Amino acid sequence: METEYIKKTGLERQKEVLIEALERAAKENGLFLNTNYKQQPHFYNKELQITPVNSLMMAMHSDNGNFKSNAYTTFQNLQANNAAIRRGQKGVPFIWSNLNEYVEIANPENKITKDSFNKLSEEDKGRYRVNPKENVFTLFNLDQTTLPFVHKDSYKTHINDTGQTAPHDEKELRIDINKYIQKMRENLLPIRRDGIGVAHYDANRDLIHIPAQKEFDTYPEYVQAVTREIVRATGVPQRLNREGTMSSDKEKQAREGLVEDLVSAHKLLEFGLPSKLKKTTIENVPSIIKHIKETPNYTENLFRDINRAVGMMKKAEKGEKIKVNERETVELLNVNSQEQAQRNTQENQVSKAVSFEQITILKDDNEKWTLVARPNEQKPFAIHPSKQDISMYFDSLKNPNKEEGVSIRTELAQKYYGLSLQHPELKVDIFNTGATQENIEKIDRVNVFRTKDQKNMIIAYVDGKALQPIELNKSLYQRFWLTDNRSAYKVALAASLYAETLNNIKKEGTKQAQEVEQTATKEQSKQSEVSHDTAEKNIPPIMEQYKALKKNYSDALLLFRKGNYYIAYSDDAVTLSKKLDLEIKTEKNHYENEKTPLRSASFPASSLDGNLPKLIRSGSRVAICTPNEEEQKIPKPSRQDPPKEQEQKESIVSRPSMHR
């Protein structure tokens, strides 16, 4: 019970240190560890091995307390040096596994020491297993003790050698890092230079692509980006088989991202370099902290994965070849429950190479080559490939063996599909035309066609009239066929290409609206002179007509044509406003009845073709009416049921009672 209590309290205290470090990094734009370039965590005046998780805990505790170094000591060591812990200081837990005891598998009560185990024959050793016991010690940073005052000279020397003011040999550091990357390349997996601008792991070919250092703002960012992908490669099914590496589950992906950030941070600690959290990890910090606090075994499994990943990388650094398990073998490992078996099946499905409906490379609006591919039953994605891959793509088009050419292009698409999933920030939006919604709504319809002389053209219709056709360049024409919604894209494209023309239409419409308003004001003043009875109540004649029509057609929405506008009054104005998101105008000098001010809502006549189908689809029956003062026949509302969307367009054009 005592051991379990110590383990629990030690783990809980480690959770607190980790949570504080994550919260601090989230507030500081991802800056996570060792921003002051301190040497890696170590014991003061002692050479003791430190596990990866304990090393991270010591570094996080040091940064949380803003201490000058990553040097730590124990209470016993302080006593031996006639020093003490300063009042109110909180140490960091150091969990150490004692592996000096073995138990017999068939009889756990039979325990022997490690020395006794080593004396057994190989056959007898198979009857025993190690019985680890975890001990928890509390460590204190030197700045939490009285050592800086009791042993001033030795403390100052140690800080100068290992702290934030320690000298750094930049040339030697870069040599060490290049050796580290070379060891990973020789013993773990292939690592190649790439011109994409971001480090990424290619799961299909089991290799890492790394960009030139100049693609990064700082050298530590470059080293961490490369290390993250190395860590990711250790977690794939054929190696350590971590949950999140091949999973589509967002929670598992977030946990895997945290593993990659923490393991890479540990590696940069060894080099005395600072590290950061990825943007996605920063976004997931609240969820991660919740799991640390509430999800059973979440933190234990996280720490286990960190130690295992670092362990594999250390083996490769020492020159040991890391053997890759066959996929079939990996699938059989650790399947001790139905849940685990289901997880392996899901991971295999995700790792299968996706097939593509379309693959091409075209130029974007900035004249930059862009790979665009449409995976089966998915939306297309676009990304900027490397120069080598651009050349490979165009060479594949010239390949006399068509099947081989298709295979090359598919491999490229699979590579960048995987990259886009790992780094969604690399995707580019080539279907954004920049058109305004206002101009889009002015367009009746758009046609894209090819002429006899093989020119690709686009033509837009506004207010029933065709505008001058515009020739599309090859890139825009390709995008039209690649988009997942051609109807919407061609209208948006037309709104962008015809922007100047559509903007002029807007100016003319504004001028006409002003003229209509002036005319309406004059007509209203004339009406008040003609009808004395109505004038006394300030009720315009249009309301008498509105009320008369409503007696016979109470369920119809009445739209009155005035000049270049359609206007709804009274309760119909409220209905029209809600369905088309229009402003309701209230007139101070005119009334619907003796108490209610006149309400109205209107839209330009040019918008009728777009607005009428919306009204009908929403369940409204619409009647287009002509005011009495214009001495035109008032059409009766249609008694037909609302037609389907395609039929609506035709009925609007052919119905004789409809005026546009």
TrEMBL record:
Superkingdom of source: Bacteria
Gene3D superfamilies, A to Z: DNA repair protein MutS, domain I
Molecular function terms from GO: ATP binding; mismatched DNA binding; single-stranded DNA binding
Gene Ontology BP, a term: mismatch repair
Cited SUPFAM superfamilies: DNA repair protein MutS, domain I
Domain spans labelled DNA mismatch repair protein MutS-like N-terminal: 541-633
Residues in N-terminal domain copies: 40-107
Name of the molecule in the record: Zincin-like metallopeptidase domain-containing protein
Organism in which the protein naturally occurs: Bacteroides thetaiotaomicron
Top-level taxonomy: Bacteria, Pseudomonadati, Bacteroidota, Bacteroidia, Bacteroidales
